[in-house]
Amino acid sequence: xxxxxxxxxxxxxxxxxxxxxxxxxxxxxxxxxxxxxxxxxxxxxxxxxxxxxxxxxxxxxxxxxxxxxxxxxxxxxxxxxxxxxxxxxxxxxxxxxxxxxxxxxxxxxxxxxxxxxxxxxxxxxxxxxxxxxxxxxxxxxxxxxxxxxxxxxxxxxxxxxxxxxxxxxxxxxxxxxxxxxxxxxxxxxxxxxxxxxxxxxxxxxxxxxxxxxxxxxxxxxxxxxxxxxxxxxxxxxxxxxxxxxxxxxxxxxxxxxxxxxxxxxxxxxxxxxxxxxxxxxxxxxxxxxxxxxxxxxxxxxxxxxxxxxxxxxxxxxx
Length: 318
Known about the structure:
Layout: E1 9-14, E2 20-25, E3 28-34, E4 40-43, E5 56-61, E6 89-94, E7 97-99, H1 102-105, E8 113-119, E9 124-135, E10 141-150, E11 156-166, E12 170-181, E13 186-187, E14 190-191, E15 194-202, E16 205-214, E17 219-222, E18 226-229, E19 232-233, E20 238-240, H2 254-266, E21 271-274, H3 280-289, E22 292-295, H4 306-317
Parallel strand pairs: 20-21, 21-22
Antiparallel strand pairs: 1-4, 1-6, 2-3, 2-5, 7-9, 8-9, 9-12, 10-11, 10-15, 13-14, 15-16, 17-18, 18-19
């Protein structure tokens, strides 16, 4: 841990760990996370040592557990949960004034960057961005939240800017809207993606920024018309997808996730359904290649006790 990080906020972000994860840092138990298909983040800012090495220990247990979704014994399944630390882990070093982690923030329809589309049309579309900013210092701070929307061709097409004050040890959500004329709409047959660049700045100095790929589109289900995308009926053919491969189990690199999505799309599929939340690399590939995602909450014809049910609810929230 670098000495210049003493005044920073340090997160460890685990993208996926099967299936009950216990984490210790320098002998201090940091968390127990239940469920292997969703990310979790641990704030280690107050536990790391700057004067000597740190010891990080993680214990993973993927044995049958009726209190952890999906809960069904593996001998009754036609596939395997596998085990281990199979998705990536990031050490994130943040300025005290930064965009929140969406799961760590634990806000309904909030945390991080949340994009919606109040109006969708080729002539003009509205992109609405809700940015959740946290001030993890002991004093009031003022900052600017700026949005830049960049077209698939790399042109700046719209901006939004707003100044806010955030009290010490609090977070605040800022909602901004941008109008996009002659919008290139996302569709499985033409998956156009914009880049949204969000910047947090204090006294002209950038304290945090994120780039998010977005597709401007509307999706509607109607009992008479079925599925519509951007107001037009769409018939989608799909397949189920598991994330495991021979020899490596769940531990696929991003390139293998992309290859799976590419093969699905090449075969004519425009949607997929999974048993559980997939790797971010696979979801990104679906955005890029034009595949709709139906992501299930782990369950598989099994309902456990009250502890199991509460953990299913938490899975759904996350």
